[in-house]
Request: fold
Amino acid sequence: MEYHQQALLQASGAKRDILATDAYLALAGHLLGGKLNPISIEPTWTAKGRERDLVAYLHQALESDAVVESLTTLAPQQPRYQTLLEALERYRRALSLGGWEPIAAGPLLKPGMHSERVTALRNRLKAIDGSLQAEGDEHRYDSVLVSAVKRFQQRANLEPDGIVGPDTLAKLNLSPQDLIDKLRVNLERWRWLPEDLGRKHIRVNIANYHLETHEGKDIRAVHDVVVGRTYRQTPIFSASMSYLVLNPWWETPSKLARKDLLPKFQRDPSIVQSLGYQILDTQGKVVDPSNMNWNEYTESRFPFRVRQQPGPMNALGQVKFMFPNSHDVYLHDTPSRDLFSKTRRDFSSGCIRVRNPIDLVEWVIGPNPQWSRDKLENVLSSGKETTVKLTEKIPVHLLYWTVVADDDNDDIRFVADIYQRDQRVLLALNKLPDNKTAELP
Reply:
């Protein structure tokens, strides 16, 4: 039953009041903070959820005869949450009408091909892209259809090559129920968030490779980012940025030095000096790398610190943005800027690499006569490590959304679940007791 819906229709008197009260408090709690405890799904979660005395809130709603309105107010009020709710209703209607026919499996569909599967592809894309019109032979994979496929691929964070291979076909063939499930998962994630993310704050959507700077209700800028590889996933958490470092030294984490750098030094010892690395012993003294026999050391026996001096080869680039946390994860520049041209951008060891980081520096520092653009450029040109403490801490939220609200057209995009995290949330939602499985309004 959905929040005692059937039982309430049959009950009366005191029993009906008890059921109604229980249903209200359960639904109110789910709207306010989600159906699941986020830490049970994402152990690194640190954002403080919304809280309220719901018993007192119910009394107030009854006194003002505004029970329905009180529930509506408890749901997240962000426009993007509402966009996802509206999409949920659309796909539920599509499911009730029988959904759509999947495109049959077969060889790659490439531009110029002639096949009945092309007709199915065309029909599927017409349902998604209202601008697509049939021209000429509907069985031919013509240039108009190629453009529509590329648009679909771009919106799904797939390589926009215009070829319908296994990944693109799987995305096209997601059923209404599949999409409903994805929306349920992401709506739940929205309900885990605090009421106030911060007047001035940063949001990183790991799955969409985007960073947004927010001030009030406005998005000031969007930066492409590179996130952690699937085996070194960027964690989900919130913290406060308190300072940034220009021309940073890179103090290499011990695990990364042992697992990644040591094998590289063993293959080519010359890169220690050519890439600006320093090797320090347990006393903190710099060791001459030319006197070291790298093959004497192993991942389990490497008693050195490794750090990299500022410069064009530094792994952190020209700046790192620090929001102290137990994961040792932060935002930073990168010398590997070619990675931003790729569609899928999970290449880091967990930290987040930011495109156009100096623009982000200016936004973070804000209007400050002591840090004009010229001053900033001069400090960066000096190569000297410089710490800039912020006068106002900036909340940073590392989030994971696989359904993305497209603000330009009030629509949504379904992007790849790069870390395979959706299924955990969905399974947990589906295991809830019957009176908790109904989707929230």
